Amino acid sequence: MATHEEAEMMKAQIAQLIEKNEALQSSVETIQQQQLQEKIGSHHGDPIEPEPQPLSTEIWNAPIPDKFKPPHLSTFDGRGNPMEHITAFNTRMAVVGAADSLKFKLLTGTFTDVVM
Q1: Where along the chain do its domains lie?
Q2: What's the predicted TM-score (pTM) here?
Q3: Where are the alpha helices (DSSP H) in the chain?
């Protein structure tokens, strides 16, 4: 159990961390606003380019079958064996008869954390 003095010291450290966190958040917001202003200012009336897609236009624009309901897909966060994840994913996709373009679209949705 911490003594009264140790508890007070921890409270002071937490208060300092909170202040630093708030200052960092403010800095991030300022930087984001500056970046947005630069992005807006750089176009000068030009049409805004679409955000880049992780897939080719051909794959991205491939139709999804009507009434398609994706199966439950497990996620992959970088821990474990990536080949096991891919094998399980492909098995589920084979069961529903998914086209390759649909597999590519759905696979990216199974990645989380650092894998993204």
Answers
A1: 1-49, 57-115
A2: 0.51
A3: 4-43, 57-61, 82-96, 100-108
